[in-house]
Specification:
CATH class of the largest domain: Mainly Beta
CATH architecture of the largest domain: 6 Propeller
Helix content: under 10%
Structural class: mainly beta
Strand content: 35-45%
CATH topology of the largest domain: Neuraminidase
Radius of gyration: 25 Å
């Protein structure tokens, strides 16, 4: 199968009513392998955001032009997102020189809808600003107030809004400053560069009638002179009442800030959660668990790591430990070179907890915008690949020589063939499995006569298959040289061998076994939250027309 094949968008997530640690999660489900297939809300065609109403119905809101006038509209679902109504008008919007976009819904404690908009505005001299506008329903969502501007300036996307248990509504956002390298600021800021954006929060204590601005300006250093710094924050209220904020940065990881009241915030600090320059999505479920969607992607020029894959994870202890770190969706056009302009990829998740412990989240994808997911999928501890589903679960874009081949010994079976067929093209493939602090990978491989070498990598984040720095960032690297040697053990060509990698994050080591016999022990390269990626790449110096075959791979993990 050539690399031009179309990948379908990967898995979706849904959350069930089980605890996230092995102590809480029922013992008979700790090794569950979910048969619930992720699915897209194909009947919900528009770019929309979903909210759950007090009566259990769902509403997906978006804007459109009704003839010559803009309006806020929605579709309803009475079956938890399986089917959706025709478009229904909610309220007209004022018409002027600029449009309305990105309505972000919140169902408040009174059952009314609070809607936040981005609205562009022409500057007096040139260019545009992007203001924040607000409207709310009254009388059980039967009437609407005239929208009004609650903040003026240039904001990034709105990705989160919550109402705290005490009733306070929080709208986190980022805004452009006048900061430049030439005018970095005073004090410590003069010694570094905080980028062009700050983050803060708008809050309301009267159900959205009036709005106040937090006095805190949240800043994060920028890695170079062309970047934003802190941008597009999201928040969730923890069990202890503290509000947790994740800030998008360009450092390859999220930063976080905490607040006891939603007004005063701690200085942002780096987290251990890797991310490209992309926002997170956070949502608290009815049973108290938190689900996170994000791009666990590094080392690609676009968005400081890329947005080829959207990931998901779940925590029952407010972020101290996580389960999952699984691929939720793929960019459906990742086999093609990226477009020259514009945002692209699977990103900008805005999740909503719906009935039955499930989640609907946006993806940023131009088609099939919203995903519906089942939570048990986060708790899988075993994953196996025998290529009966083709290469659907693998990433091999930007490479050549990676394809499915007829199994040499079994009729009607296929194997993964990895050969470096062209000098200027890499041959590599990437596979995601559930994250574990302890676990094992079992690979059944066959090297052919003339084999020129391969590297097996185990790591904790996605990077493109052709990442030429992966060996320096993998947790463990297993080399099979051109003689077929792993350590002092030599693989016989044209014979199937079982290679096992058994890692223990706490012990910081990985045992490597060939056909059941230990051949070497690898030392872990760095700290990690758990391993969840297998990487295969040809190490041939020129070409390798022989290569290797992979019959199957199985991951078994002990959760984080």
């Amino acid at each position: 199968m050539s690399n031009s094949r179309k990948f379908k968008i990967g898995f979706l997530l849904l959350i069930g009513c089980f605890g996230a640690t092995s102590e809480i999660y029922p013992s008979h489900l700790q090794r569950v392998v979910s048969d619930i297939k992720p699915r897209f809300l194909n009947n919900l065609k528009e770019v929309s955001r979903v909210a759950k109403l007090p009566n259990g119905k769902l509403i997906a809101v978006f804007t459109r032009n009704n003839g010559s006038a803009p309006e806020l509209v929605g579709r309803y679902s009475s079956d938890n997102g399986q089917t959706w109504s025709e478009v229904q008008s909610l309220t007209p919007l004022p018409k002027d020189e600029s449009g309305w976009s990105s309505p972000e819904p919140l169902v408040d404690q009174g059952g009314e809808l609070q809607i936040f908009f981005l609205k562009s505005r022409k500057k007096q001299l040139s260019g545009l600003d992007i203001d924040i506008w607000h409207t709310k329903s009254t009388n059980g969502r039967t009437n609407w107030r005239v929208p009004r501007r609650i903040w003026e300036g240039y904001t990034g996307s709105l990705n989160s809004v919550i109402q705290m248990r005490n009733g306070r509504i929080l709208l986190p956002f980022s805004y452009m400053t006048k900061r430049t390298w030439a005018k970095r600021g005073e004090g410590f800021d003069a010694f570094t560069y905080m980028g062009t954006f700050n983050c803060t929060v708008l809050y309301s204590d009267d159900q959205g009638d009036t709005w106040q601005l937090s006095p805190d300006e949240l800043k994060v250093t920028a890695p170079d002179l062309s970047t934003y710094g802190a941008i597009e924050p999201v928040v969730v209220e923890r069990k202890d009442g503290q509000v947790w904020m994740l800030l998008r940065t360009q450092h390859g990881r999220f930063y976080e800030s905490l607040s006891k009241d939603g007004i005063t915030w701690s200085k942002p600090r780096p987290t251990r959660i890797f991310s490209s320059d992309s926002p997170a999505g956070l949502v608290r479920l009815g049973d108290g668990r938190i689900v996170m969607f994000w791009n666990n992607c590094l080392r690609f020029p676009y968005a400081y790591g890329g947005r080829h894959v959207l990931h998901g994870a779940i925590t029952s202890d407010d972020g101290k430990s996580w389960r999952g770190f699984r691929e939720v969706a793929h960019n459906p056009r990742r086999d093609e070179p990226p477009p020259p302009t514009g945002d692209h990829g699977a990103t900008y998740p805005i999740p909503c907890a719906v009935a039955d412990g499930c989640i609907i989240t946006s993806t940023g994808l131009p088609t099939n915008y919203n995903l519906f997911v089942d939570p048990k999928w986060f708790y899988e501890t075993k994953q196996r690949e025998d290529f009966t589903q083709g290469l659907e679960n693998w990433s091999a874009f930007g490479t050549k020589g990676v394809e499915l081949s007829i199994h040499p010994d079994k009729q009607n079976a296929r194997v993964l063939s990895l050969r470096k067929t062209e000098l200027d093209w890499p041959a590599a493939a990437v596979w995601n499995f559930p994250s574990g602090t302890k676990g094992s990978l079992h690979l059944r491989i066959l090297i052919k006569p003339g084999f020129e070498g391969v590297r097996i990598g185990v790591t904790d984040h996605f990077s493109v298959p052709f990442d030429d720095l992966d060996e320096f960032h993998n947790l463990y690297n297993v080399a099979i040289n051109s003689e077929g040697k792993i350590g002092k053990t030599k693989l016989t060509p044209n014979r199937w061998h079982t290679v096992q990698l058994k890692w223990d994050i706490e012990q910081r080591r990985c045992r490597v076994l060939v056909n059941g016999h230990e051949v070497t022990v690898l030392i872990q390269s760095r700290e990690t939250l758990g391993a969840n990626y297998l990487r295969l790449i040809s190490t041939a110096e020129t070409t390798d027309l022989a290569g290797l075959l992979l019959e199957e791979v199985e991951a078994n993990i002990i959760p984080n």
